[in-house]
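Extended Data, record Undecaprenyl-diphosphatase
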Amino acid sequence: MENSTIVAALLGLLEGLTEFIPVSSTGHILLAGHFLGFDSAGKTFEVVIQLGAVLAILTLYSARLFAVFRDAPHDPQARRFILSVLIAFLPAVVIGVLAHEFIKEVLFETPMLIAVMLILGGIVLLFVDRLAPEPVHEDAMKLPLGMAVKIGFIQCLAMIPGVSRSGATIVGALMLGASKRAAAEFSFFLSMPTMAGAFAYDLFQNRDVLDTSALGEIAVGFVMAFISAVFVVRWLLGYVSRHGYALFGWWRIVVGSIALLFLISGF
């Protein structure tokens, strides 16, 4: 029990550190769980602790979000922002529900696929960081609705573990003309309904396989994810505004390559 609690804390820390940077938190957690011998019923732990990271975003952006919802009844721009996030969220709802069983029982159980997608995603991120078009949208709260829909469909690629939800949305936003900071912020905002929805649906689907010990591990992972995500979000926007996303591309390639070598070696 003690060892599993320590592993749950480490995985929660890893979740918070990687959720909002484009390296695939799910890919990192599933690979770490594989090599550490950690397995949760229905892979519920890996999904539920993401809610800790969502609460970190809600905490840091609470004043801004409160102002948006307060002003929505009389401010068209506030209503437009809320609509942009909702319509970007919808594709994930439909595809996630329809493909849920395949994603959890096949894709989440294929470490080799995760390692390969980490590498490929890193190459794409390096390419986009250098060759993305000049930004025409500097404010994440003022993206065109059509652009939000496209980002929403691109986000669905992240249902393949190792792709990265934040990576997919950031790359999509950059290629569609968002600045590096606006791309990261819109990814933050879109993560709230997306991850909260995944949490609620996954918890419902796996309600029969949860037990007291699993809930204890989830609680530990949840708290660690919240704390570490707060620090990452505070740091990330300033970093990408100055340096871009190349660091995360190289990180993906290195981690994916090491994991691939271990898997090929039979670990």
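Summary. The CA atoms of residues 135 and 177 lie 5 Å apart.
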